[in-house]
Amino acid sequence: MIVITGGAGFIGSAVIWELNQRGIDDIMIVDHLGSGEKWENLVSLKFRDYIEKDRFAEIIMNKGCSNIFGQKDNKIETILHLGACSSTTETDASFLITNNFEYTKNLALYALSRDIRFIYASSAATYGDGSNGFSDKEENIDSLRPMNIYGYSKHLFDQWALHNSWLQKIAGLKYFNIYGPNEYHKEDMRSVVLKAYEQIVSTGRIKLFRSHNSNFADGEQLRDFLYVKDAATITIHFVFNKNLNGIFNVGSGEARTWNSIAEAIFKALGKSVDIEYIDMPESIREKYQYYTCADITKLRQSGYKESITSLEKSVEDYIKKYLLKNARLD
């Protein structure tokens, strides 16, 4: 059995969808559905059971879970920990440390004590402004300087795992800018593709942040964008290759401009490009990443051979198959 925390979320539901495509449904989902529309991501998925994350934490802390279904054939083989607060603008440090660091630590210790495969979501936010590069080599971890508390909450667990020598036994995945179907519930944390699509439908144009860095022209800020379907296949690569441990970047390995992603969106909609540049809020200017690009050398060396969908093709797939039809992964 595979336990997937955050399984109703964006990347989590895409991973389950991909597992279902492969005929796998021996899955327990752990999440917090709350009062939003995240539950809709679950409707078409096939899985064994669902449990709220606080209840799951109680079971873990009480050293339970071995017979959670009342059956003997449901041994947990893998915990894929994708659940966390993913808001880069969250300012409650205590909440993020409790939710992102301590929860992850408890799950990791539980898994390690029972010889359960443990994979967790780290983040490209741990790289900060990129001045120390984007290499996922473990020896670089302590040199990284995240620029917000979200990034630090992820970085703190990377450091804890490193200093306790757990990275020899577990895998951490540093996700870059992921976009695609099933992100609709993420509110302000939704991708630029979804936000831009809604702007075009409403006004016919896209608003992008003006650059406040002399090294980058307006709209020429660079990001490593990755389609969620690719993120799902990469994640599953680590689920079924249990000897792959350590930190790994999950990105395309290519930096693209905001302008290029805007152009891809307009092209997919069959419309002329119309971009308006607006000032970036002062509150985020000092902590804004102008460049990210995943070094995916280790990913390729790990045996991942699949091609990565181009920005243009993935944007077209997202818009034509999902956004225009108001659809989710099915």
> What is the share of helical residues?
25-40%
User: What is the tally of beta strands?
Assistant: 13
The end-to-end span amounts to: 22 Å
Instruction: Assign an overall shape.
Output: globular
**Strand adjacency order, main sheet:** 3-2-1-4-5-6-11
Number of helices: 10
Sheet with the most strands? 7 strands, parallel
Mean pLDDT rating: 93
| Succession of helices and strands | EHEEHEHEHEEHEEEHEEHEHHH
Instruction: Kindly name the structural category.
Output: alpha/beta
pLDDT < 50 stretches: 69-73
Determine the strand fraction and express it as a percent band. Answer: 15-25%
Describe the protein.
The chain has helices spanning 10-21, 53-61, 93-113, 149-163, 192-203, 228-239, 258-269, 282-285, 297-301, 311-323; strands at 2-5, 27-31, 49-52, 78-81, 117-123, 171-175, 177-179, 206-209, 222-223, 225-227, 246-250, 256-257, 275-278. The protein has ten helices and 13 strands. The strands form four sheets. Strands 3-2-1-4-5-6-11 form a seven-stranded parallel sheet, sandwiched between helices. Strands 7-10 form a two-stranded parallel ribbon. A two-stranded parallel sheet has the order 8-13. Helices cover 35% and strands 16% of the residues. It has 330 residues and is α/β, with parallel strands linked by helices. Residues 69-73 have low confidence and may be disordered. The two termini are 22 Å apart. Helix 1 (10-21) links the parallel strand 1 and strand 2. Helix 3 runs parallel beside helix 4 (149-163).
